[in-house]
Amino acid sequence: MEARNRKLSEWYGKIQRGEIRLPRFQRYEAWDRQRISSLIETIIHDLPLGITLILEVGDEEKFVSRHLATAPELDGRVYEHLLDGQQRLTALWRVFHNNYDFETYFVYIHEFDNYEFDEERDDLTIYWRSRYFKRNGGKYPLWCDDPAQVLQRGLIPTHLLRPEDIQQEIDNWIKQAVAPLEPIEGGREELQHFYDFQRRVSDKIKDLRSIIANYNLPFLALPARTDKSIALTVFINMNTNSKPLSTYDIIVAEVENVMGKSLHDLADDLNQKYPDIARYAPITKQILTTSSLLQGYLPNERGAWDMNKRKMVEQWSTMAHSLDRMGKFLKSEGIYDEQRLPTNAVLAVIATLYADIPESGDKRGQDELLLKRYLWHAFFTDRYENSAATHAFADFNRLRAIIRGETKSDGSPYSLADVPIFADHMLAEAEELVTVEWPKRTTIRGRGILAVACRLGALDFSTGERLDLNNIGQRQYHHIFPDALLKEAEVNSFLALNCALISDKTNISIGRKDPLRYLTDRYQWTSEAIVKERLQSHLIPIDELANGGYDSLSANEKSHKIRNDFALFLKRRAELVVTAVKLLTDGRQLSTQEIYGS
Questions:
Q1: Measured in Å, how far apart are the chain's first and last C-alpha atoms?
Q2: CA angle at residue 409 from 408 to 412, to 5 degrees?
Q3: Do you find a cis peptide bond into 141, omega within 30 degrees of 0?
Q4: Does an H or E element contain 22, and which?
Q5: DSSP secondary-structure letter at 71?
Q6: Closest CA to 469 of 334, 569, 357, 324
Q7: 144, 231, 252, 360: which is deepest, by most CB within 10 A?
Q8: Three-class SS string for 233-264?
C-alpha cells in the first residue's frame, strides 16, 4: 500500500454524499473538547495529522455500516469504509456544522478582539463555549449566536468554514457582525475605515476556508478484494499496537543526563512516601506540572520543556511536601480520587501555593480558606474549560500574591477582585446544571455536582455508611430515577443530577423500581427520619422524589407523569446544589439543615 493524498474538501464531500461510512463495530464518538480543539488548530496551522485508513467497497459491503454522527443518512452507494480516523472526521464534520448540543466552537482572531473583558489568548486558536438551555427554550449564553458579540470577542464561528458553497450565509453573518460599527454620521474617512474592516473580516474568513478546503489528510486504502478477517486485523493493529514516548519519558532522559540521577527512582520514592498523591492524577504528570509552576513556568508540557531540570531536582523535597499537603487538602474537601475530580487544572496550583502556606496557625487557616473558595469556583465556573494551563497560571500568580501579602503598583494589597477566576467568571446557574452530563464522563460541572454530595458525606441508602477515602472505590454510579423507567418515557437518564454514589449491593437491590417503590421498601425496616437523612446527604429533594404510582396509568399518562416528575426533581435538586455551591465558594462548611432550610 502507498499513502494517497486527499483534500479535506474531498473528505467532506464524501461524508456529505454518504459515500464513506463506518463499519458498525466501530465505537461511537469518544473525543473530548480539548482533543477536538487541538485537531482544528492543527488543521488551520496546516500541520500534519496521522494517516487515515479506509477499506474500499466493491459491489457489496463486507461489514454492516452506519453513517458518521449527524451526517446525512443517504441511501446511495457506499464506496469506502472508514477503518481508522473516525474520531477525526466525525469531529471535523460536527465542528464545521457547530451541531454539538452543549458547546459551540470558534476560531480566535486577535486583531478583531475589541472585548475589554477578554482574556489573553494566542492568535488562531480554537475557543469553545459550553452551552445550556433554560426553561424558556433559549440556548445560553446568548452571545454565542449573536454575530456582533461574537466578532467583538475576536471570534469566527467554525460553521462558516465548512468547505462548501455558503457565500450567502457568510455575507449575511458578516453584515450582522459589523452592523453596530457602521458610522451613523461621519465623513468619507470613517466610512472607508468601516468598509476596510468589513473587508478584512471577509478576507480572514476566506483565508481560513482556503486552508481548510485544501488541507491534505492522507490515507491508506485496503483494496476491495481484501479478506474481511485481514481488514479486521489491520484495524486492530492500527488502533492498539503503537505507544509513543511521553513527555515524561523524554524528560527522564534529560534529567539523568544533567544530574546523573534517575527520575524514575525519585518518583518511585515519592510514591512510596506519599501514596495518596497518585490518587488524583498520574504521579509523573503531577511532578512535571508542580515543578514547572514552582519555577514560574506554565503547568503543562511547554512548561516542563522550559523549566530548569537541575533546579527541578534541587526543589524536589519542596515539590514532594507540597503535593502531599495538596492531597490532604483535597481529601478534607471530599475529593478522594481522579475519577471524582472535576478538573485536574487545580492540582498544580494548590500544591505550589502550599510552598508559601505555613504549617500551622491563623495564617494557614486564612490561606486555606482562600484555597477552598478557589477550588469550588474551579468546579462551578467555565474558567478551566479552555486553555486550562494558561488560566491556572494566571490564577496562581494572583493567589500567590494574596498569600504573600504583596501589593500592587498603587500600594494597595491584592484581593479576590484581582484573581480572574473570581472577578471574571460567574457561577453556574441552576438551568445549566439541569443539562449537565453523567459524572462518570469527564465533565467539570458533572463531577462538580457529585463532589458536592461527596463533601456532605453521601450516606449509603441502605447501610447508612458515610462515603470516605476507604470506601469510595466500592460505590457505584446509581440512577436515582432508574434508567429503565426513564427510557419508557424517552427521557435521557444520564444526567449528573440523576446520579448518586451508593454501594453496589444497594444499587442492585433498587433495580428499575420507581422512586416511590424503593422509598417504601426502605421505610418498612427503618424510620422515615433515617431515610430522609440519608437522601438529604446526597442533596436529593425528597418531596420531588417521592412520586411514582405509575402502574395504574395508561402508556401515555405514564410517560407524561414520568417526564413531569423527573423535570420537577431535576429543577429542585439543581436549586439545592446551587445553594450548596454558594456556601462552598464563600469558604463555608456545609450542613444539610442550612441548605434545605434556605
A1: 68
A2: 45
A3: yes
A4: strand 20-23
A5: S
A6: 334
A7: 144
A8: HHHHHHHHCCCCCCHHHHHHHHHHHHHCCCHH
pLDDT of res. 244: 46
Alpha-carbon gap, residue 290 to 355, rounded angstroms:
11
Nine-digit cell string for 214: 485544501
Phi, psi of 401 (to 5 degrees): -60, -40
User: Which stretch of 11-15, 37-41, 230-234, 506-510 has the lowest confidence by average pLDDT?
Assistant: 506-510
Report the pLDDT value the prediction gives residue 201, as an integer from 0 to 100.
97
The answer to whether 555 and 523 are in contact (CB under 8 A) is no
Neighbours of 165 (CB within 10 A): 8
Q: Are 320 and 326 in contact (CB under 8 A)?
A: no
The pLDDT tens digits for 491-530 are: 999 999 999 998 877 665 655 566 666 666 665 667 778 8
Phi, psi of 280, deg, nearest 5: -100, -20
Over 453-480, what HEC string results?
Answer: HHHHCCCCCCCCCCCCCCCHHHEEEEEC
- DSSP lists the bridge partners of residue 178 as none
Q: Which whole-number Å values give the CA distances from 407 to 136, 158, 368, 371, 401, in the listed order?
A: 46, 42, 20, 20, 8
What residue has cell string 473530548? 32
3-state DSSP assignment of residue 327? helix
All cell numbers assigned to 596: 434545605
Residues in the chain: 598
Residue 376 corresponds to which cell in the numbers above? 469550588
Enter the C-alpha cell of residue 502.
451508593
Q: How far apart are CA 569 and CA 543, in angstroms?
A: 9
pLDDT for res 242: 39
Q: Smallest Cα–Cα separation from 49: which of 84, 94, 13?
A: 84
Q: Please give the helix or strand (H or E) that residue 150 lies within, else none.
A: helix 147-152
More confident residue, 441 or 98: 98
